[in-house]
Amino acid sequence: MPMKTHADADLTPDQVSEHETMARDEKLSRLAEMKHDLERQSARGTADLDQVEARAAALKRAMERAKSGT
């Protein structure tokens, strides 16, 4: 897997799923990592519930797009 650049770290779930040069497996891996980070923040109570729900929904949509290749 290529090293992440600072710009890559700032990508939203939608940007990851729509990325033109990123391989499908890399997209899914990054989205899974984002989901794990969100779960950790939620467990620690360091994220607002509304933000967690919105981010979780965005991650779910992005993962579905990345899996289907659209």
Content-based structural category = mainly alpha
Radius of gyration, in angstroms, nearest whole number: 12 Å
For the secondary structure, the number of strands is: 0
Q: What's the overall geometry? A: elongated
Q: What is the H/E order?
A: HHHH
How many H/I helical runs? Answer: 4
| Low-pLDDT ranges | none
Distance between the termini: 21 Å
Estimate percent helicity. over 70%
* Beta-strand percentage range: under 5%
User: Major sheet: size, sense and barrel closure?
Assistant: none
Mean pLDDT: 86
Task: Give the key terms.
single chain, mainly alpha, 70 residues
What would your notes on this structure say?
It is a single chain. The chain has four helices and no strands. The protein has 70 residues and is mostly helical. It has a domain at 25-68. Helix 3 (24-44) packs antiparallel against helix 4. Residues 1-26 are annotated as: Disordered. Residues 16-26 have a biased composition (Basic and acidic residues).
Task: Describe the SSE topology.
Layout (H helix, E strand, L loop, with lengths): L5 H4 L3 H6 L5 H21 L4 H20 L2
Helix pairs in contact: 3-4
Provide a compact summary of the structure.
The protein is mainly α. It has 4 helices and no strands. The protein has a domain of 44 residues.
